[in-house]
Amino acid sequence: TSDHLRHVDSMGTLPSGTGKISYLNAVILGDSLASEENDLVLPSPEFSSQALIPSSDKYIEMYRRSIVDPAGFWSEIASLFYWKQKWSDQVYSENMDVRKGPINIEWFKGGITNVCFNALDRNVQAGLGAKTAIYWEGNEPGQDGSLTYTDLLERVCQLANYLKDIGVGKGDAVVIYLPMLMELPIAMLACARIAAVHSVVFAGFSAESLAQRITDCKPKAVITCNAVCRGSKVIHLKDIVDTALVESAKNGVSVDVCLTYENQSAMKRETTNWMEGRDAWWQDTVPKFPTTCDVEWVDAEDPLFLLYTSGSTGKPKGVLHTTGGFMVYTATTFKYAFDYKLSDIYWCTADCGWITGHSYVTYGPLLNGATVIVFEGAPNYPDPGRCWDIVDKYKVTLFYTAPTLVRSLMREGNEYVTRYSRKSLRVLGSVGEPINPSAWRWFFNVVGDSRCPISDTWWQTETGGFMITPLPGAWPLKPGSATFPFFGVQPVIVDDKGTELEGECSGYLCVKSSWPGAFRTLYGDHERYETTYFKPFPGYYFSGDGCSRDKDGYHWLTGRVDDVINVSGHRIGSAEVESALVSHPQCAEAAVVGVEHEVKGQAIYAFVTLVEGVPYSEELRKSLVATVRNQIGAFAAPDNIHWAPGLPKTRSGKIMRRILRKIASRQLDELGDTSTLADPSVVDQLIALRDC
Ligand code: PRX
């Protein structure tokens, strides 16, 4: 059994707390403000009594079963979905140990199903046809729309028929480059219906990044819109796609169809650049197709989607998720972590361009028959009260967001929050990076009026769904801790040598044995999958995160331990930014590190060595930043460019980022041993130039 299970077994139950948890600082939700670092925030008896998992006893019972009998536990849950044909007797098979051969994970193999059918047809058949599936809120207050489950099914079928008509079939890739319009989840579901593999690219990525992804997955079609308003800015997405398609064609990948939605509030079709023969207006073509479309039934292990994410080295990786396990896992985690009830109105502020929007805007909630909000605009437009305006407008009960948004709104003062009622809110959620206790308390005390538990969900693009998360109603919370593993998840904390640490400890976060939502490979590069995730600590999946466990068994995520930088919850590889910088003709070398940032969590800090003879200038600094914007996207732009006559390297030529991180964060008395550097004087030069 896992360390966590042993720990869970030795713990007491709530609320008497006879076990290891100390209740000295405990507050009951709604009774008092969460204020101290070591507060335990207990669910109120009213909340717990109505919760799906009403006590730690219930959690322990279910968790225990999920670890002792994963096959039984997950097949019971999977049976709640529609399967055209049930999976084989073996519910799952896995090899997560590189020493025993290729890494291989399968769940519900042989089972025949379809995720779109389960999210839409099944819910309509169950009587939810007239229920609102999506409320859409545009950039401007007052711009809105909605679709019932029946409407959504019809729209999805029309697009699915269109895609089939242009020749998209099972296993073909479709790239989706759309902002948060209803057409984005529609496009994802239409692909799922016909077993095409969608690859959504966040519409903040540059043409170059889009081209790179198109080149890698070779889509049959690209789906986009002509433009989008973000706050007061208009962004011409179709132009970005046009440039990307020219670029990918140079790499030998030409795309035959570019389906373009006319986003009239942002741009009229007359002013949109057009390529006859390739481009088609969504509004002119899709509505002509029938509103019913047969489902393409697929094996549980057939691919559902690809999503590119950043690693510490090299180009972005295409994380591949398959059908059955992802469906069962996202739906189940959604249900329990948010204590979902049919009457809930759910809003996740993430964009569908990231994994959160896949698992917890589109699939998880719709599989549960939930009503979701899709918000196109910016949370601080027209003012920083917009989120709470939307919460009141739609009577949102479950609100899921990122710490960076919490911190940025916290800076604007409580007035923007308290002028709205927020009475409907029931559960809050956080994702993307560790939430610092002060932001947690503000979210809890001010936004949630000390009434609503916060589910701080730790997970990753690779994990498909929540891995470590509170289950509101079951456990006391600690501000800043993601608490305990979800059912079936066995987190372990290991030291440098891969030895599992017990009890109170701190180290690298790994996971022992598979869970249904796990990614199955990196598209076209299974070797990189094994090397990155399974070789560092043989026998385990390695997350890339640091973590500590406290005396009560709570997990505290401490951030990435590799060269991945987390800016506003967006994952950026230092190598990608470095390669963008060195593509600038005047840049000879670059090294990029993350530094702490009050709102963004981390900011990008770049050390740049210029080509011999090129002088430093403000203009050059701007042009370097612009290069990163153009090559990756605005969200990856460095906040700092630090001129570097040389970089600290070992004698074998390896850049010592540890030293660069200390210089960037001005911790000059913590530089450590610099004697192993090929040229230790480089460090003094860097320090001298730090404010230039
Ligand atoms: O470092 C962890 C951080 O985000 C990384 C995963 O990023 P991505 O694949 O883009 O997925 C983001 C949304 C799931 C993790 O390796 N992270 C995510 N959630 C948390 C977190 N760190 C601490 N606490 C969290 N709740």
Q: How are the secondary structure elements laid out?
A:
Layout (H helix, E strand, L loop, with lengths): L2 H7 L16 E3 L11 E3 L2 H6 L5 H13 L1 H9 L13 E4 L8 E4 L4 E2 L1 H14 L3 E6 L6 E5 H17 L7 E5 L5 H11 L3 E4 L6 H11 L3 E5 L2 E3 L2 E3 L1 H14 L6 E5 L17 E3 H4 L12 E2 L3 E7 L7 E6 H15 L7 E4 L6 H13 L3 E5 L10 H9 L3 E4 L1 H8 L4 H4 L8 E4 L6 H11 L6 E3 L33 E5 L10 E8 L8 E2 L3 H9 L6 E9 L5 E6 L3 E4 L2 E4 H9 L4 E11 L3 E10 L7 H14 L8 E4 L13 H8 L16 H8 L4
Helix pairs in contact: 3-4, 5-6, 6-7, 8-9, 11-12, 14-16
Protein name: Acetyl-coenzyme A synthetase
Keywords: ATP-binding, Ligase, Nucleotide-binding
InterPro entries: Ac_CoA_lig, ACAS_N, AMP-bd_C, AMP-bd_C_sf, AMP-binding_CS, AMP-dep_synth/lig_dom, ANL_N_sf
What radius of gyration results from the CA coordinates?
25 Å
What is the first-to-last residue Cα distance? 56 Å
Ligands bound to this protein structure: adenosine-5'-monophosphate-propyl ester
The percent range for strand residues is 15-25%
Structural class computed from helices and strand pairing: alpha/beta
**How would a textbook summarize the main sheet?**
8 strands, mixed
The count of β-strands is 32
Low-confidence stretches: 11-24
Kindly report the spatial arrangement of strands forming the biggest sheet. Answer: 14-13-10-8-9-16-17-25
Average of per-residue pLDDT values: 94
Q: Give the overall shape.
A: globular
- Residue share in helix: 25-40%
- Structure annotation, total helices: 21
Domain AMP-dependent synthetase/ligase: 129-514
EC number: 6.2.1.1
Protein name: Acetyl-coenzyme A synthetase
Pfam families: ACAS_N (PF16177), AMP-binding (PF00501), AMP-binding_C (PF13193)
